[in-house]
Design goal:
Distance between the termini: 61 Å
Number of strands: 17
Number of helices: 1
Helix content: under 10%
Strand content: over 45%
Number of domains: 2
Strand order of the largest sheet: 3-4-5-7-8-16-17
Radius of gyration: 22 Å
């Protein structure tokens, strides 16, 4: 009988834990530095077509922004300041702020801007240009000698979002743009926008750097597996 009661107690505890992590409707939650984080209140605003989501927990504010409400993915930490994430906490009058702002670092994501000519498939290809050094890539080229795919091999350091980098070899004319760097990157994905009920849903993940240079805070805050669901869009204020 005691074993049976213990089994019931364990089952009830497991159900309670499962219920605790079930997604709120509406709600916003994710993993902050590998620990579960959930907003106590969340709301969204649209101003001039740009989306802002504000999520509040005790002493904490998480803000997500995208350049539109269109479905799709929005890269963070790039030169497009309309796509951003920020996190702030204030406790005992000590303010700590993080943001996905352009900052020097190892390259995270690139976008090919010029395929160039004279290239062939190659590995460990050096690069030139940009703010940093040490960046090398693997490349694939088409029959005309144009680069069609760039894969990061060594991410280097000291690069900035927006840097234009040249791939060596070929006719030295294939280039790509640094979209963002590892310590300030991520994406927001809008998966659903209901313009009748005025609600929005999606996912997010990002690294954000210490933006107010507070020596008491870590250099980077990380959010992973983030989701927002049926967040109400309120009139802009």
């Amino acid at each position: 009988m005691r074993k049976f009661l213990s089994l019931i107690a364990i089952t009830f505890l497991m159900m309670s834990c499962s219920e605790d992590v079930k997604f709120n409707d509406p709600g916003l939650q994710g993993l902050k530095n590998d620990s579960f984080w959930r907003a106590a209140d969340v709301r969204a605003y649209v101003t001039d077509g740009k989306l802002t989501i504000e999520a509040y927990a005790q002493y904490e504010v998480l803000t997500l922004g995208t350049s539109s409400t269109n479905l799709g993915k929005y890269k963070l930490g790039s030169t497009n300041s309309s796509n951003f994430a920020s996190y702030a906490t204030t406790f005992d009058d000590v303010a700590i702020e993080y943001a996905t702002i352009p900052t020097p670092g190892p390259v995270s994501t690139v976008s090919l801007t010029n395929v160039g000519t004279g290239y062939t498939d190659a590995t460990s290809v050096a690069t030139t240009g940009g703010s940093g050094s040490g960046l090398s890539v693997n490349i694939k080229a088409n029959a005309n000698g144009g680069v069609t795919e760039v894969t990061l091999l060594s991410r280097g350091n000291g690069y900035m979002a927006g840097d234009i980098v040249t791939i060596t070899g070929g006719n030295l004319n294939s280039k790509f743009r640094v979209v963002n760097v590892q310590n300030s990157n991520g994406e927001i994905e809008i998966t659903q926008f209901d313009n009748v009920k005025m609600t929005i849903s999606g996912k997010f993940k990002f690294n954000a750097v210490n933006s107010n240079n507070n020596p008491l805070s870590a250099d980077v805050v990380n959010f992973q597996s983030g989701e927002f669901y049926n967040v109400q869009i309120y009139p802009s204020i």
